[in-house]
Structures are given as structure tokens and as C-alpha cells.
Design a protein that fits this description.
The chain has nine helices and no strands. By secondary structure, the chain is mainly alpha-helical. It folds into two domains: 68 residues, Arc Repressor Mutant, subunit A (Orthogonal Bundle); 102 residues, no CATH class.
Length: 185
């Protein structure tokens, strides 16, 4: 009987599990050290593997970084979901709630990484510009789902304003202007 060349299901599951563990370790590393420290060898060391094995699990560094930052975004979405109100809120109420969450020191590694992605996108790095847009649109959709607006059109406007305001607050905190954020609310 000839082999089909496929791995048995248990081998695939084990490979997927190993890839997931690697992604968790890489997400931890990038959150702690930022993107400037994310060259292949330090990433492999953080994942507990070799750079060759990283490229076994991920086609190239772009795929690796996209998956890693996707895992970071998943974690942050989970943290935001945990802090979400049980029902949709008016825009000002949601902004006030997000201020307390997004600017908390426990979430600052996520915000710092987000600013790093935005900085690279601002320098016209096509990879980070596309990735930043994807993540930003995901957070825009998350915000829209949290809003109590009178119509879908108004919800889209309110979500865009919410995203712009929260991004501004994150930037101001990074510059040491937390007090300005509090005054704006």
C-alpha cells in the first residue's frame, strides 16, 4: 500500500499545537522587546527553537511577523472584551471606559507595540502599513460593536471618532501627556 505523503491527523495536530506555542512565545517576546529586537535569531531563541525551525513553521519572516502580531492583536481583543460593558454604550461613555483600559500600565506593552507599528507604517513600510491597517480596522469594528448609536451610519461615524480619540490618547500618553487625556474626558 502506498503512502499518500500526508501526515497522520495526530502529527498535524501536534504540529499545529507546536506552532501555537511558538506564537505565544513570540508574542511574549515582541511585547517585551518591541519590533526592533525582532530579528530571526532572537525570535528563535525566545521560541525555544532554531531559526531554521521557525522557517519550517512559517514560510518566511513576513509570515512569521504577521502571525505573531496577529496573536498579539487576538490577546488584546480578549483583554478589551473582558473590559467591555455588558451592553452597548453611548460614545462618550465608551471613550471614558476605554481611557481607563487602554492607558492602564498593564496594557501599555500592547500600546507601545502598536505605536511602533504605526511609526513603521508612517515611514511607508508596506508590510507594517498593510498590517497596521488590518489591525486598525479590526479595532474599528470592535468599537462599532460596543456602541449604542441610533443608526448604522451614525455608528460608523461614532466608531471612527472613537478610534481617532483613543489613538490620540495613546500617542499623548507615550509623550508623557496623560494629564491631557484626563482633561479631554
Amino acid at each position: 500500500m502506498q503512502s499518500s505523503g500526508r501526515q497522520p491527523a495526530s502529527g498535524t495536530a501536534k504540529s499545529d499545537e507546536r506552532r501555537s506555542v511558538i506564537l505565544d512565545r513570540l508574542a511574549d517576546y515582541v511585547l517585551a522587546n518591541g519590533l526592533s529586537a525582532a530579528s530571526l535569531r532572537p525570535l528563535a531563541e525566545a521560541a525555544g527553537t532554531s531559526d531554521r525551525m521557525l522557517l519550517y513553521y512559517f514560510k518566511d519572516k513576513a509570515v512569521l511577523m504577521s502571525a505573531t502580531l496577529g496573536r498579539v492583536a487576538e490577546r488584546m481583543t480578549g483583554l478589551l472584551n473582558a473590559a467591555a460593558a455588558p451592553q452597548p454604550l453611548a460614545p462618550d461613555a465608551l471613550l471614558a471606559r476605554l481611557h481607563g483600559v487602554l492607558l492602564d500600565d498593564s496594557l501599555w506593552p500592547y500600546m507601545s507595540l502598536w505605536l511602533e507599528i504605526a511609526s513603521l507604517a508612517a515611514r511607508n513600510d508596506p508590510f507594517y502599513r498593510a498590517l497596521g491597517e488590518q489591525i486598525g480596522r479590526g479595532f474599528l469594528a470592535w468599537g462599532a460593536a460596543q456602541l449604542d448609536s441610533p443608526s448604522p451610519a451614525q455608528r460608523a461615524i461614532d466608531a471612527a471618532r472613537l478610534l481617532a480619540m483613543t489613538e490620540g490618547m495613546v500617542l499623548l500618553k507615550s509623550l508623557g501627556l496623560d494629564d491631557v487625556c484626563r482633561t479631554a474626558l
